Amino acid sequence: MGFSGWRVLREGLSGNRGWTPQWRDPEPKSEYDIVIIGGGGHGLSTAYYLAKEHGLTNVAVLEKGYLGGGNVGRNTTIVRANYFLPGNSEFYSHSLKLWEGLEEDLNYNVMHSQRGLINLFHSDGQRDAFARRGNAMINQGDDAILLDREGVRKHLPYLDFDNLRFPVYGGLLHPRGGTARHDAVAWGYARGADSRGVDLIQNCEVTGIDIENGRVTGVQTTRGPIRAKKVGMVVAGRSSQVAAMAGMRLPIESHVLQAFVTEGLKPVIDHVVSFGMGHFYISQSDKGGLVFGGDLDFYASYAARGNLPMVEHVMEAGMALMPMIGRARVLRSWGGIMDMTPDGSPIIDKTGIDGLYLNCGWCYGGFKAVPGSGFSFAHLIARDEHHAPAARYRLDRFRDGIGLMDEEGTGAQHNLH
Amino acid sequence: MRIAGKGLIDRDTPVHFRFDGVAHQGFAGDTLASALLAQGVRLMGRSFKYHRPRGVLTAGSEEPNALVTVGQGAHADPNVRATVQEIYDGLEAHPQNAWPSLRYDLLSLNDLAAPFLSAGFYYKTFMWPRAFWEKLYEPVIRRAAGLGALSGQPDPDAYEKAYAFCDLLVIGAGPAGLMAALTAAEAGADVILCDEDTRSGGRLLAEDEEVDGQPGHAWAQALTDRLRAMPNVRVMRRTTVTGVYDQGTYGALERVGQHLPHRASLPRACFWRIVAKRAVLASGAIERPVAFPNNDRPGIMTAGAVRAYLNRWGVAPGRRVVVFGNNDDAHRTARDLVAAGVHVAALVDSRHEAQASDAYPVHAGAVLCNTQGRLGLESVTIRTAKGEERIAADTLAMSGGWNPSLHLTCHMNGRPVWRDDIAAFVPKPDMVPGLIPAGACHGAFSTHACLEEGRAAALRALSELGMTAKDVPLAEAEDAPVSLRPLWQVLGKGRAWLDFQNDVTAKDVALAAQENFCSVEHMKRYTTQGMAPDQGKNSNVAALAVLADATGRSIPETGTTTFRPPYTPVAIAAMGAGAEGKGFAPERKTTSHAATVERGAPMIEAGLWYRPSYFPDPGESHWRQSCDREVRMVRESVGICDVSTLGKIDVQGPDAGRFLDLVYTNMMSTVKPGRVRYGLMLREDGHVMDDGTAARLSEGQYLITTTTAAAGQVMAHLDFVAQGLRPDLDVRLASVTEQWAQFAVAGPQSRALLDGLLDAPLDPEAWPFMACGPVKVMGIAARLFRISFSGEHAYEIAVPARYGDSLFRLLVARAEALGGGPYGMEALNVLRIEKGFITHAEIHGRTTAFDIGMDRMVSAKKDCIGKVMADRPGLKGPEREQLVGLRPVGESKEMTAGAHLFEPGTEPVRVNAQGYVTSVGFSPTLGTMLALGFLRNGRARHGERVKLKDHLRQVETLCEVCDPVFFDPDGGRLRG
Amino acid sequence: MADLIARSPCMGLLPLEQGGVSVTELDPGPMTLVAPYKGQAAALSKAMKVAHGVGFPAANTTETGKGVEAAWFGRDQALLIGAVPDAALADHAALSDQGDAWAVVRVAGEGAEDVLARLIPVDLRDSAFPPGRSIRTQIGHMAGAVTRLPDGAVRLMVFRSMAGTLVHDLDRAMTHCAARGTG
Amino acid sequence: MRIRCPICGDRDLREFTYKGDAVALNRPGPEAAAQAWDDYLHLRRNPAGATRELWYHGGGCGAWIVVTRDTVTHEILGAVLAEEAEA
Known about the structure:
The complex is a heterotetramer of chains A (417), B (976), C (183) and D (87).
Chain B lengths: L9 E10 L2 E7 L3 H7 L6 E2 L6 E2 L12 E4 L6 E5 L9 E4 L14 H4 L19 H13 L14 E13 L3 H12 L4 E4 L15 E2 L2 E2 H13 L4 E4 L2 E7 L3 E7 L13 E13 L3 E3 L12 E3 H9 L8 E6 L2 H12 L3 E7 L12 E3 L2 E6 L6 E6 L2 E6 L2 E5 L2 E3 L12 E3 L4 E3 L8 E3 L9 H18 L32 E3 L4 E2 H9 L5 H8 L12 H12 L3 H4 L11 E2 H4 L17 H6 L4 E4 L2 E4 L10 H14 L2 E4 L4 E6 L3 H8 L11 E8 L5 E11 L2 E6 L4 H15 L6 E4 L4 E7 L3 H6 L16 E6 L2 E6 L8 E7 L3 H14 L3 E2 L2 H11 L31 H4 L10 E8 L11 E3 L12 E9 L4 E9 L8 E6 L4 E8 L9 H4 L1
Parallel strand pairs in B: 1-7, 8-9, 8-15, 9-12, 15-28, 17-24, 18-19, 18-24, 19-20, 34-44
Antiparallel strand pairs in B: 1-2, 3-4, 5-6, 5-7, 10-11, 13-14, 14-15, 16-25, 21-22, 22-23, 26-27, 29-30, 32-33, 34-40, 35-38, 35-39, 36-37, 37-38, 40-43, 41-42, 42-43, 45-48, 45-50, 46-47, 46-49, 47-48, 49-50
Helix pairs in contact in B: 4-5, 4-8, 6-7, 9-10, 9-11, 15-20
Chain C lengths: L15 E3 L2 E5 L5 E6 L4 H12 L9 E3 L4 E6 L2 E5 L11 E5 L4 E8 L2 H5 L17 E6 L2 E7 L5 E6 L3 H18 L3
Antiparallel strand pairs in C: 1-2, 2-8, 3-6, 3-7, 4-5, 5-6, 8-11, 9-10, 10-11
Chain D lengths: L1 E4 L3 E4 L4 E5 L12 H8 L8 E7 L7 E7 L5 E6 L6
Antiparallel strand pairs in D: 1-2, 3-4, 4-5, 5-6
């Protein structure tokens, strides 16, 4: 059933009684061609593209809770393609292009808003690093504009230009960067996958992965065993537990990242702003809440909640950079479980087990990757070969050191990316 | 309308304030809401989506409707709950989310379009044409959304943060909290008692009831006074515990100055971090509205709020009141009203067994099914067995029962359990370690039960803390049982509001279920139920019940929603207090800071430090002039530069050499006393961490240096290696960065300068390049190192920091006498680029010793941190980008750091990228721009030409690849 | 020829007084970090006792003698304050001169604890932090050392370069306390 | 969060920095196989439950400590000095 303005009008006039479920709640079948473990953004988009791009619809997505209940529903909603290392550069570029057609593709308004992202820099050295990044973005065919201090002031007049501890030297503007309505992305993919025949099975936790002679044969779940020719693991912060069911140990440590939203306010911040010296980023949602976050809490955690030192640090960064937000009140804070890798970049790869595929390690940048990740992972699962933009996301790069993508340059400590 | 003789306000102290441009008078003790209600003002706000007229619903911090902006200009405070804001002389409050006025709000047209604005409608439309989202739809939606507005100006007020510690934190000073505090305090425990209200008592302030034979509020006051007098008790009023964190850490917000006229030095608020060994949660309960059609008009309030305004503030919210409820509190409300002389037009009780009364008409087994009145309630429609009936009323008091305020117990992911007898969620035991719920927040609703649970909670805490309790008697108090029959919604024509603030109606929840958003989390996210500033305190349980109904499940089967910090919203300025301006991070100043600033040098941040960019001479108008001069000065005579910011670590002990061999790639154990060696440190993953020097001061003592940026990281790393990896080595580390003021004296005249300054001239034989040793400057013991970051004959001299200022001034004066002077970071950078010396622009965390051409420095004779991993296939070989020098050879001479490198004639796109530029500078020595960069297989490509391309700055320059050492490649000047 | 002139870290910044709380700069005299080598802790303590009258302090404490103090200063470290270390100490410990590395201030007065509660994440009330306690912790955003002096005042130490920030932070906290009337 | 430093006692999280799994104490020898190094530096058990991990009390006494902590509840089950920890 298509969505459109006309449809909204028509239904409105008839008491909104004609709307039907946006996805089914099917009973799991005993066998599928492909089982995707994880009904988050990445799992749902994988299922969607398996169906749409590869015609594979005998597919189940198994979700232990509710669809979109993980990081896709608890992030700061930023969408961007401003990476500079080969691998990330082409991958996020591809993902952003998918974003740009997502509403039409899904017939779902995910409110992708390309309001522009500005990364501020605060020294000559940072400017040079951002110039390198911006040039890499343009090399890739994406957009970037280097702003000087006055250029930043034109866009963001409310920053503290006079007294900031780390003065604003300028910023890298990524005009196509922006935000999207996070839940809608999960729902849009869910509806799209469901309508193409994919079974989305909620409240179905995978408890075991069946492997015979080095080949995956299915999974055990809380709703019974399900046979499958291929299994994809897409469970973000829970990757280590699921991979352990297949006897694997991953280069992943799970960490908590907190985020915050204020009470609703009239429009005051029009861009996405990122404060390099303070690990602080902020945008304003369409509802009016200031949505912002900072760094990891830095300790391993599955609690999806954090502690005060980072809360305070984030607030302090906000007060330092833009003291006009002081009177905005934080309404809600939350935490997500981030699957951190040793170089801060993700993994989309086969495993040592035939038919078992891995998609993880999105650190705290997974939201913007949802379309690209699903597209590339679906390609890998369907064709058993890497999709070019994700070809560098190998699992064994840490071991051989080939093609590391350490954008932060902080080295092989999981929590430093 | 005030009721004579009632209330805890001070009628002798009138207070003057304004709301919506109109002057009003209230009394000390009034909130903005009570004062306005007393003046007959009912319309106080507009709702979020439909811009419905709204008045006060509650009398507490959970208020969803009466949100106003207090103050003006930069002091404007949006979204203030009128129910919490105390009035003070001069207070100015403004309505928000209404245009052009509160009474005539244009966007109330949205209300007419409500059929098209159902839950999630925006996911289904606004998709065509694509470009219209950012340009048209989104701006319109954004402007319509939001509540109050920020001023856009920096918050000018003071805020603070503080720490507090206690044995027992008691959250809430109602009967349960007071009793818990007293019990613990009498046992000698260190107690903090917090309450968000201005005075203790909790519900006792709002009820007409006696405790121990005296009015409840007086009992609470007396007990609070008694607690306050005890040395082991700290009573914190106006303090809301907002969040629970690990190991007994609580966040709390104290309103310090928000209830007073503005005073610059008085903080508006203080954000407390309270560390408590145990805590008692006595946060009470929140009464819930009932969802019936048009239940949101101004004049419709919770019954508990009506009693609060009546009993605490002496305000009758109206002249004709209808009470509607499913429990005995409805009757209590009617009784209180009648006793105060207010007309109760009807009591509508959904329970068939409701008792009749002589004082007011009771409609048993009846419900409210509609209301009328545009800007305020005029009448209600009730549905009885006989049919529908309209009753004129200006106030409706409704009670759907009470929800325990268990929010804090959920902050660690705990899920509460459902109790059928009170139709509410209550906390399970130990949802938060060490936090014991008591009283109404625990489902105990009578005053007696609250007192008893408060005492019991304290006793449990005391026993867990190993403290002996004294016998504390319980006060006499009412002990009525809860009598309630769940009633969540009344079906009928029209919208029935659940979440008043976000304009979520029962129909929206049903629509969510219809579209299979059946998980409570899905429903919440799809409808935005519970996501407004009250975080669903007023509505979540009812919405859950409506969802349960729509999906044919019980409430416990349907689930619970979780609550997250903060309990009530906290200003960013409070949690971020002190960080504005320079307060964000400590400022580190060198001993030469004052002298440097006196010379007009612009200071730049280097980590936390400040360092001079350049020292302008009179007549110089551009930094390049100063920089060029300073470079020439160092090359031709002598320059002075403060290098104290580099990290300095004292490494001592019998195993110091072996230790350094492990952390540096090269051999440090073989350095002879009195000599210095340059060293490279790797991370364990094989990439370069830092570089610096190791000076062997004596057999058992090294002084190593780090870069300014990496000093902290290196110290932590060395501590890790010493304590974690090699605790067998006898080595002691101490940071001595701050002990020594250290200055570079660089240039051909450096020795001449020092010879005139040191107590004894330098013997050239004893002071070759890379020598070090003790010297004396005017009798002061100093250290001298013959090292160079400029490529010139140079020294670094270190004196105890107290002499730094004095020595710097002296060095500069001596240098000037020799034709030299001080130089800053710009010149330092050019000097090092000319020599191909690296900084963190090159060792940016992704480069290896191989990449920077220093793999020879990785000793083959020993293991070191990072050695094995640096040997991975991907970290060496011709595919790697290697350090090279670049100089312009074409028409364009421009070079920019951050540009990328391509082979001439290729498209400047990613697949053709060959490398990038890290550092550039104009060399006055060589008369050209120079650059350092990384180029694929660069060391094998010296002499080749590459294209430098900077898209961002429109630079394209043909360059020649060369050795990174541009100047004096054999080092004659440095050694000479 | 002029002599080199010594400047104290807080020169020109102190004293401060507000709301009954005073902050003054202390001149501690010589300060030396003493870090015993492996197995030398007891011997070092003995040598210190002999030479200076104070032993190596237990963790989080300070030992005060005649004009000399040995303040615990971190894992296996103490700061010998007020005397140049006897040469014999070097047999048992690494010695590092720290006499110029720290800004050292004294915070005293009725409301001092309230002021310090705004900066330091440790319970510094009398009952929990009596004279003789000396700890390493954070002061605002700075690493520092906090000692309860025999007279009840509190000594704060931060890196010399951060003297300005320490004074700024104290001043701000004192202003707020004074305005509240809690000072 | 508060961590009981074996030297300083109970202290606020803000005084500590985190390194990761205590496996970092078990540094392989230079001759160890590539797999051993990969295990050491990259691969993690990453349990949802009790784990031993390295913290640095840099804002306090400067000790590296091994903390046993539950990653689901954040309960701290013990802490010892790294130099005294069993490998």
